[in-house]
């Protein structure tokens, strides 16, 4: 059963408020299959050495909850793509709330090692804020968080450019409705090949030169509207480098070694299939591959090793931001679905 827009309202996308847009979809799949989440709850141990959890819609399907349940059984929990545009809210047994954006949800399992893979775009100040907030709640990442030396760094300049590009697009009513976390511009730097990687933090002199050059691109393109203090960031990153380098490693080697030793690896997808830059509703998508390809390239683990792929689906669909959504529902029905389903994002509100 689907609902169309009420008379006088088109389902065409304009800039959307941050609250998720909702669509009811009560159609049954032709062949109803038991959900893996349900079987995982029934069995004592989910029997897959490498298990991948992906979002199948537009995000916010509840991947974090499932990853949190499964991570109790896994040695390693890894993120492969995306950045702080993703958000997972998890409550522990005592009702404490944890809002995670970059740190894998497995951090709440005290025996799990968490990996941020090469495909992730990493905003270090944001990461350390998250680590600090976890610490305040008694969760230590000490020795348990491993960061790829190949992951690209996302700087405040990328967030600045994200905002400026959205403002430009707003003029023509074509903004994407990004999370303004700098995701698109950071992946653009990676593809342009002038981005900086975590391993660049090992040589701070060349790091400074590279960052100045990268920033010049932004100031040339956006002129006076571009507000980013590159020298201040260079100073800030001297300190951040000291803090992060003990966590930095070759995560491809780490994962392959762990696999060979029989360790169990859970891979936590971020965002979702319909936001995939190749397979989603382009251009209203994110800038990584949240479907299966992004897992392989984002961690360097080949698909032949994956024993289980779990696609998380919720009974209705929600979407944040702009883009096609022909069966969107509006007004009272939308409001009540939003309220009942608590459809307010960890990242977007
Ligand atoms: P970006 O990833 O911030 O560039 O945003 C691109 C589009 O993806 C926007 O429509 C966002 O609202 C959407 N988006 C990105 N990540 C998520 C997510 O984790 N959940 C829901 N929507 C997301």
TrEMBL record:
Pathway the protein takes part in: Purine metabolism; AMP biosynthesis via de novo pathway; AMP from IMP: step 1/2
Protein's GO biological process: 'de novo' AMP biosynthetic process; IMP metabolic process
Protein EC: 6.3.4.4
Protein name: Adenylosuccinate synthetase
PROSITE patterns: ADENYLOSUCCIN_SYN_1 (PS01266), ADENYLOSUCCIN_SYN_2 (PS00513)
Coiled coil: none
Chain's role: Plays an important role in the de novo pathway of purine nucleotide biosynthesis.
Subunit structure, interactors included: Homodimer.
Similarity comment: Belongs to the adenylosuccinate synthetase family.
Keywords: GTP-binding, Ligase, Magnesium, Metal-binding, Nucleotide-binding, Purine biosynthesis
TM spans (from-to): none
Reactions the enzyme catalyzes: IMP + L-aspartate + GTP = N(6)-(1,2-dicarboxyethyl)-AMP + GDP + phosphate + 2 H(+)
Gene Ontology CC terms: cytoplasm
Entry keyword annotation includes Ligase: yes
Molecular-function GO term, any one: adenylosuccinate synthase activity
Residues forming the catalytic site: 190
InterPro entries assigned: Adenylosuccin_syn_GTP-bd, Adenylosuccin_syn_Lys_AS, Adenylosuccinate_synth_dom1, Adenylosuccinate_synth_dom2, Adenylosuccinate_synth_dom3, Adenylosuccinate_synthetase, P-loop_NTPase
């Amino acid at each position: 059963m689907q609902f169309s827009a009420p008379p006088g309202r088109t389902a065409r996308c304009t800039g959307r408020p941050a609250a998720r847009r909702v669509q009811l979809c009560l159609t049954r799949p032709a062949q109803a299959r038991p959900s893996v989440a349900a079987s995982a709850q029934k069995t004592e141990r989910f029997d897959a050495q490498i298990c991948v959890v992906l979002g199948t819609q537009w995000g916010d399907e509840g991947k974090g909850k499932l990853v949190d349940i499964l991570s109790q059984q896994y040695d390693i929990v890894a993120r492969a793509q995306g950045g702080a545009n993703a958000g997972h809210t998890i409550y522990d047994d005592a009702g404490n709330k944890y809002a995670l954006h970059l740190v894998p949800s497995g951090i709440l399992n005290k025996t799990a090692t968490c990996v941020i893979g090469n495909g992730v775009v990493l905003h270090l100040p944001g990461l350390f804020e998250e680590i600090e907030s976890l610490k305040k709640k008694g969760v230590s990442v000490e020795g348990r968080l491993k960061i790829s030396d190949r992951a690209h760094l996302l700087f405040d300049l990328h967030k600045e450019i994200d905002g400026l590009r959205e403002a430009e697009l707003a003029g023509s009513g074509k903004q994407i409705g990004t999370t303004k976390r700098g995701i698109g511009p950071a992946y653009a730097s990676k593809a342009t090949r002038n981005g900086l990687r975590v391993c660049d933090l090992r040589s701070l002199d060349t790091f400074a030169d590279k960052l100045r050059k990268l920033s010049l691109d932004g100031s040339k393109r956006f002129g006076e509207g571009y507000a980013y203090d590159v020298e201040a960031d260079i100073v800030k990153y001297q300190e951040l480098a000291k803090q992060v380098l003990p966590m930095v490693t070759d995560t491809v080697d780490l994962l392959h070694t762990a696999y060979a030793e029989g360790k169990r690896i859970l891979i936590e997808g971020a965002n979702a299939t319909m936001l995939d830059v190749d397979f989603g509703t382009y251009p209203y998508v994110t800038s990584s591959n949240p479907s299966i390809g992004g897992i392989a390239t984002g961690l360097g683990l080949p698909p032949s090793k994956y024993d289980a792929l779990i696609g998380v689906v919720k009974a209705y669909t929600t979407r944040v931001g702009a883009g096609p959504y022909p069966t969107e529902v509006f007004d009272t029905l939308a409001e009540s679905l939003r309220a009942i389903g608590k459809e307010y994002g960890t990242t977007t509100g």
